[in-house]
Amino acid sequence: MPVKKRRGDLFSIWDYDGRIAFEDIILATEDFDIRYCIGVGGYGSVYRAQLPSGKVVAVKKLHRSEIDEPAYLRSFKNEVQMLKEIPASEHCETAWVNIVKNMAHALSYMHHDRTPPIIHRDISSNNILLDSKLEGFVSDFGTAIEIIRPRFVQSNLVAGTYGYIAPEFAYTMVVTKKCDVYSFGVVALETMIGKHPGELITSLLSSYAKI
Hints:
Its EC number is 2.7.11.1. This protein is α+β, with helices and mostly antiparallel strands.
């Protein structure tokens, strides 16, 4: 049986072939070897894969223990749907010198230029992926939600990363765009000073204690 020829962009609607794409990903990551892992989240791990065409992609693989959990599968499908509806140029493409400016641009698109708006709910430095050209992409839309008005969220569904979650959310349990804005502010400071603001505060307090 002849091998199907690889042509064009395997991820475009015309050339997509799931079997070939999967085979290329397995080869590119050496069956998801830890050396290619560039991030680990609550639902899965993200791997860097360079396809035969030279294109570099980020591939998320769900944790084995969570594959059969309906809640995690729904979250994964939600993430895929969100990414499909946001233009690639709006996934927060950045260079280090423009990271704050471009993150703001990406959030502005999600919050104001899209209907209904998207609240990411987990903006953190761990969820900004950088490629070899130091272009960044907002990742992990598994907890993102579409929202029209402020929305109450049950405590067992709280999403976010410790140190980046807006303090008012802990008191009100209401999700708004401001939750993302607070998280963005933390990442902006982290980018400018080279460490999480919490680490800086701890360091300063420690220094004052020695005086």
